[in-house]
Amino acid sequence: MNKLRDYIITNLSSLFVSMFLPLFAIASVILFIKLATYTAVIQLTVWEMTKLYIFRLPEVLFYTLPISFFVAATLTLHKLSNDNEAIVIFSLGIKPFFIVKTLIKPALLLMILLMFNFLVIFPHAKVLAANYVSYKKSEAKFNLAASEFGNSFGDWLLYLGKKNEDGSFSKVFLFNKKKQEEILIAAKNATLVNDAGVLRLKLSQGQGYSYSKEKFTQINFEEMLINDTMKTSIIEYKQPLEFWLSDDKSYNKTKMFITDILISMFPILSIFLVVAIGIIHARHGKSQIYLFLFLGTVTYYGATMGLQSTLHYYTIPVVIFSWLLATYLLYRRNILSRF
Predict the structure, then answer these.
(1) By mean pLDDT, which of 160-169, 183-192, 205-214 is the weakest?
(2) Count of CB atoms within 10 A of residue 313's CB?
(3) 147-172 b/e with 16+ CB inside 10 Å = b?
């Protein structure tokens, strides 16, 4: 029995890898295309694109692993049937439920992995990706151009004479007009510094002039810092539970929680369906395995997405029990009645 169990798991593993890699590659290409749309708003280097991809990687894995397991498990049993090995197994007195128990263990392990992924890793990854994109969008608002009028830095009007090779600017002038006074600053060099969301203009070797109706003031400086806090929408949280319970985008989080719970449970909830459509009689059974795989996936995911608007959290127990009942009845009619 152990050898038979190992044989089934070995075949499942090889087919799982062959299913997962193409799905993962397709999902990664789609994700890179989606990330490329950010370049219309912000400038991203290859390394920055890679960082964003890494932040979204848990999401790619979450949506490819369950389908890969469902397809691989079904095709594993289908291969046993085509090779007449399934008939030999049942002829030896081994019950179909042995195959069910054999598939439950890897399905349960995958379900735990998926649960941990979306409950713990998802919040970190999604917050990192959202904050990074928000940071880059805010940074893009301060793309300063040399030798052009119209640059601004907070309340200051800014003119930059020349951009140097190291990214600094020379011959810099800043002007700020207030109700009671006007301020003019001239500096030989200026460097733009972005420090954790605070944009600083570092001026060196210059003079500052302040004049009003009552007085005129002049200062000389070796170095001056002018700060401007960017309006960056930063999401903060300390623990995954805090992320899920916060009121920020609570409606979207509710939908995501319901969807991800059911997708995480898809491998183990579909064991009866896997056996029911995977095991056929090689001579008398006409297999439509790929049609059944497509219909099974679409039906489960469709019920998961479609019932949320009316049932809300009740979608979880309704989908679980109805799917188990329907697939068990199919398993009983197709498998238990014959083997």
Answers:
(1) 160-169
(2) 12
(3) eeeebebeebebbbeeeeeeebbeeb
The rounded radius of gyration (Å) of the Cα atoms in the chain is 31
Q: Hey, what are 323's tokens?
A: 């799917």
The token pair at 270 is: 């579909």
Q: Which of 151, 227, 152, 235 is nearest to 195 (CA)?
A: 227
SS (H, E, C) the chain: CHHHHHHHHHHHHHHHHHHHHHHHHHHHHHHHHHHHHHHHCCCCCHHHHHHHHHHHHHHHHHHHHHHHHHHHHHHHHHHHHHCCHHHHHHHCCCCHHHHHHHHHHHHHHHHHHHHHHHHHHHHHHHHHHHHHHHHHHHHHCCCCCCCCCCEEECCEEEEEEEECCCCCEEEEEEEEECCCCEEEEEEEEEEEEEECCEEEEEEEEEEEEEECCCCEEEEEEEEEEEEEECCCCCCCCCCHHHHHHCCCCHHHHHHHHHHHHHHHHHHHHCHHHHHHHHCCCCCCCCCCHHHHHHHHHHHHHHHHHHCHHHHHHHHHHHHHHHHHHHHHHHHHHHHHCCC
- Closest to 22 (Cα-Cα) out of 30, 11, 10: 30
Length of the chain counted residue by residue: 339
Q: Which residue has the higher pLDDT, 297 or 162?
A: 297
Q: In which residue are the tokens 């951009």 written?
A: 163
Ranking 72-76, 158-162, 277-281 by mean pLDDT, the lowest is 158-162
Q: How much is the pLDDT for 152?
A: 63
Put simply, whether the predicted model's pTM sits higher than 0.90 gets the answer no
pLDDT at 16: 93
Q: Are 42 and 139 within 8 A, CB to CB? A: yes
The domain ranges of the chain are 2-139+235-336, 151-229
